[in-house]
Amino acid sequence: MESLDWLEAIMDSAVLLDKAGRIINWNTGATALFGYAKKEVLGRSINFIYDRNYPFPKLIQEITSQQKKWQEDTPFIRRNGIKGYCKSSLCGLPLNEQNKMTTLLVHHNTTDYKQTEENLRKTNHHLQQQLQTIHAGFRCASGLLIQAMNHVEQNERKLRESELRFHLLAENATDVISRHTPDGTYLYVSPASKMSIGYNPEDLVGKNVYKLIHHDDLTKLKKVFTRRRENINNKPLIYRIKRKEGEFRWFESNIRLIIDEQSRIINEIQLASRDVTDRILDKKARLRGQQLAHVFRLSTMEEMASGMAHEISQPLAAIVNYTRGCVRHLQNDEHDRDQIKQIMTKAAAQAERAGEIVQRLKNFFCKGQLVKTPCKVNNVVRETISLVKNELTNSKTKIDFDFDKEVPFIFIDKIQIQQVILNLIQNAIEAMHENHIKEKRIKIQTKATNFETIDITLLDTGPGFSKEHITKVFTPFFTTKAHGRGMGLAICRSIIEAHGGQFTINANTNANGNSWIRFSLPISIQ
What mean pLDDT is reported for the chain? Predict the structure, then answer.
């Protein structure tokens, strides 16, 4: 009984085996673990509880002879067929009362541990699979990110190269390259702005281009800046822009709108502009030159017709008087008075008809009503100088201006006043050329006097007028030039007087013999 007591005191499963591995004793812990009662297992081989056969006789012999201990994790099968796990420990016991060797087999139930371990293993396996999936996703995402970053880097490099090329072109172009916000504010302007309009790029960035545009051209520029679609047939826009010094210059701009494709909102406006003032003025000069030439021809014909009418009308009147007197004397003669009368009457009628023709010629070419518009005299002078720019260059003649900046607007026939200035300049150039003047220079002055008239004075370095010539220069057909017609100054004076002004020539008595010509125009005429 003592053996049973200590065996039952073992909380785990405890089984006594003989040397053949058969069950000698079986405690309640074994019954609880395996589900078999003691009477059901006594004498049976212990292997019946395992799912495999272990060599217990051999193991028992080794333990008893070599004082070893066997221990192993073993799966088992309960009576109800449910599998479990236990840690089996086999050790030898001292000889019993019958001097028989017995062996104690202890089972420590590890089923819960094994199940927990298995669950943890499965969970770990599942987590490893998830982790591998996540790692694969990370690797894929990293690859895509690296690829995207490479594309971004390539695009940024291309953009930097494009911007570099743009800046290289813009920085070295003679045209003014500029970028603007939709409201016209400068975002960028190339260095060519300094040469073209007098402003450094930093002076313009942040300022609005509309403040520099001529008010007559502002509407058409705003219309182009606010259109919502890009026209592939866009024509360059020509407009006037004010230089830093205040002078307006003609510019031609190719305009490109940067428009958002979805919202159709204008993001930016780009301009490539060049100064075309010389081209515009040359074109206007040709048209103005044709107009002036036409006016000059008409004025010349007017003076010639007027002079011819005055000269021819007197002998015609005498012919009429003589022929009529002859008719009266012949009326008292015995000759064929009717025939003579008829002939002389016809002669008188033809003479009268000639007078009428001359009178109609004079009336046809005489001046009509002036076409007056408000003008600034300084601008009229500058435009006229542009008409003879080539002639001034070829003759190596320099023009000096001395303008009164406070001169008001006056109402004049611009073409006719330009004809006067043009005629006086051409006279000065020809006079200096014929007298072989080395330093050819013409000075033009404008001055407002007492807010009543504006004086325009021309001085040159030519020989001037002698006192005896001054009294004759306005006489038609009088000229001091070898091939002159003698009509220019007469026409000029008639134009100025038609405007209500005065024409004056002064013979200077100083050492260089220079003279000046001045004409005045009233301010209040309209």
Answer: 79
Give the separation between CA 294 and CA 416, rounded to whole angstroms.
11
Q: Is the pLDDT of residue 263 over 90?
A: no
Tell me the C-alpha to C-alpha distance, in Å, between residue 208 and each of 183, 194, 205, 475: 8, 17, 8, 58
Instruction: Give the residue from 512, 508, 507, 496 showing the smallest Cα distance to 455.
Output: 496
Q: Which long-range contacts (CB under 8 A, 24 or more apart) does 203-212 make?
A: 203/244, 204/178, 208/183, 208/184, 209/178, 209/180, 209/184, 209/185, 209/241, 210/184, 212/241, 212/242
Q: What are phi and psi of 9, to 5 degrees?
A: -70, -15
List Cβ neighbours of 79 (8 Å cut-off, separation of 6 or more).
34, 35, 36
Looking at residue 77, its pLDDT comes to 92
b (16+ CB within 10 A) / e for 57-96? eebbebbbeeeeebeeebebeeeeeeebbbbbbbebeeee
Give the pair of three-digit tokens for residue 217.
């051209």
Taking the alpha carbons at both ends of the chain, their separation in whole angstroms is: 153
Structure tokens at 66: 């070599």
Strands 502-507 and 440-449: unpaired
DSSP state of 518: E
- Mapping DSSP onto H, E and C, the string for 150-169 reads HHHHHHHHHHHHHHHHHHHH
Report how far residue 47's alpha carbon sits from residue 105's, in angstroms, rounded to the nearest whole number.
Answer: 12
DSSP 3-state of 524: coil
Rg (Cα) of the chain, in Å, rounded? 63
Q: What percentage of residues in the chain have a pLDDT greater than 70?
A: 72
